Each structure stands twice: as structure tokens, then as C-alpha cells.
Amino acid sequence: MEKKREIDNILNSLDGIQKASPGDFFFTRVQARLRKQETSAWGSITAFVTKPTVALATLCIIFLLNAAALFYQRTFSTTSMTDQFEQSSTDDYNTTLATNSYYDENTETR
Amino acid sequence: MRNIVSSKNSGVLDERTLVEQLQRGDENAFKIIVTTWQDMVYNTALGILQSAEDAEDVAQEVFVQVYESIHTFKGESKLSTWLYRITTSKALDHIRRKKRKKRFAFVQALFGTNNEIIIQPPDFHHPGVVLDNKENAFGFVKAIDKLPENQKIAFILNKIEGLNYQEISEIMNTTVSSVESLLHRAKNNLRKWLQGVYNNRNT
């Protein structure tokens, strides 16, 4: 019974609580903070860019982009070389065919 | 419905007019908004953070955000509801940031890289508590701090700010029945915690 009464007292201890105030010249402090924030906009950008994690992440991205560019360049040059080889073989074959047919035609007419 | 704002600086002003003036960059409108709602914002932050310095810091942050993002306020809710929303979310962010810092300092201390002394905040006594209730309120406020975030916000808005369930549901973007349930669970948790404290003290 005593226990319940004491707990109820604690639970009701905030009844009639008054509002607290932030103290005098609060608006002046808000204004000062606003001005500080406006002037430090560039400062915060610089601070963000020079953060070790941001710098490291940027380096990683640059490295990955370079690696990807190298990889694509290599695969592209390999495929274009294969294409070139195939093209030249086909050309050779066609020339041979053409020569043969010309030769064959000439021998037949004789 | 239009809300009327009365302040020392403005006499009587319509809330929507005040917002429109601030959206046009009127410094005087901003001053009226700050002086009218500074106690409400500070008091809510103080209830959540339980530190006068942190509450002052968050209250300033709230008004800076109001100034910067007033153009996003569409007037669908009351200005005070919008202010309560910003205050609660900023206060919760502040708590999370502090916890993160504490954890980081602890890890640094483990590796011996941080020689900074961690200062424990002094015991918090709410300045608005009636003198006779000071001792009981001290334990009670400590218990409120242990509640889960949502229950804590609902309880503070109801008990310290004196808002009704409808107003709390608008601030927390939820239904009235959810607020009822949050407050019911909060009271149960507080009672359990206080019973534990009582039992420990009397054994």
C-alpha cells in the first residue's frame, strides 16, 4: 500500500510543471548562429571535402574508374584486332577466288 | 481556420501573414516567430534532452532551420505543429549524435589513442518543477529518459507540454489510437521501473 502510494506520488510529481525559458537575448544568439552558418558555408564544404573518409572514397572511385577504363580498352582492342584479322582473311580469300576464276576462264577459252 | 499570434513585438498578427512575411525574407517576422515560440521549443527540447546547454543548442538549431526552410512550409498544419516536429526530430538526432560520440570515445580509450577525459553530465533537475516535488521529479525524469524514443516523445508532449492526444498524433504523424497505446505503454514501463527502484531501496 505504502509502495503504491509512493510510486503514484512520483508519477504525479510533474503535475503543475512550469515552462522553462531559454534565457535572455535568445533571438540575438539565434541571429549570431545564422550569420555564422552563412559565412561558414564554404568552410563546411572544404571541411567535408578534406575529411579523410571522403578523400579516401574519392581516391577509390578514381582508381576504380581507371581500372574499368583500362579493362574496356584492352577488351576493345583485342576484339578489333580479331575483327581486322578476320576481315583481311576474307579479303585474301576473295582475291584468290577472283584470281582463280579469271585464270580458269582464260584457260577454258584457249 | 486562421491562427492568431500575439506577441510583445507584433500586437496581434495572423499566423499565415507571419509565414508569408518570413518567406519574403522579413527579419521582423522572424523575430516575432522566435520570441513567440522560443519557450515552447526550448521546453520541449529540455524535456527530451535533460540538459540546459543541449536544449539551448537544439532550440537555436530549430529556429535556424525554420529560417532556412520556411519556403517548404505549406501551411497544411499549424506553425506550432511544424515547430514541434522539427524540435523532436532535432532533439532525437542530438541524442543519437551524442551516443555515437560516446561510443567512439570509448573505442579510442580502449586503444589508448584518446586522452580526453569523458565528463559525465551533472544530475538534471527540471527548473519548472514545483519545489515540494523536486526529489520525486528527479527520479521520475531519470525514468522517462529510459523510455523508447516514441514513448518518450509522446509522454513528454502530453505530460510536460500538456498537449492532447489529437495534437500529439498530428506532431508524430500517427493516429490518436497509436498515441493512446504509446502513452499506455510508457506509463506501464515507468511504473515497472519505479517499482524496481522502490524494491532496491527497501531491501
Poorly predicted parts of chain B? none
For the largest interface in this structure, which chains are involved and how many residues does each contribute? A-B, 24 and 37 residues
Q: What structural category arises from helix and sheet content of chain B?
A: mainly alpha
Shape of chain A: elongated
Q: How many domains is the backbone of chain B divided into?
A: 2
Question: Can you characterise this structure?
Answer:
The complex is a heterodimer of chains A (110) and B (203). The N and C termini of chain A lie far apart (134 Å). Chain A is built from four helices and no strands. The radius of gyration of chain A is 42 Å and the shape is elongated. Chain A has helices spanning 2-11, 26-39, 41-49, 52-109. Chain A is mostly helical. The model of chain A has no long low-confidence stretch (mean pLDDT 78). In chain B, a hairpin with a 3-residue loop joins strand 1 (4-7) and strand 2 (11-14). The N and C termini of chain B lie far apart (58 Å). The model of chain B has no long low-confidence stretch (mean pLDDT 86). At the A-B interface, helix 1 and helix 2 of A face helix 2, helix 3, helix 5 and helix 8 of B.
Short description:
The complex is a heterodimer of chains A (110) and B (203). Chain A has 110 residues and is mainly α.
List keywords for this structure.
heterodimer; A: mainly alpha; 4 helices; about 85% helix; about 0% strand; elongated; B: about 200 residues; mainly alpha; Rna Polymerase Sigma Factor, Chain: A; Arc Repressor Mutant, subunit A; 2 domains; two-stranded antiparallel sheet; about 70% helix
Blueprint (SSEs and pairs):
The complex is a heterodimer of chains A (110) and B (203).
Chain A: H1 2-11, H2 26-39, H3 41-49, H4 52-109
Chain B: E1 4-7, E2 11-14, H1 15-23, H2 27-49, H3 52-69, H4 79-110, H5 134-145, H6 149-159, H7 165-171, H8 176-201
Antiparallel strand pairs in B: 1-2
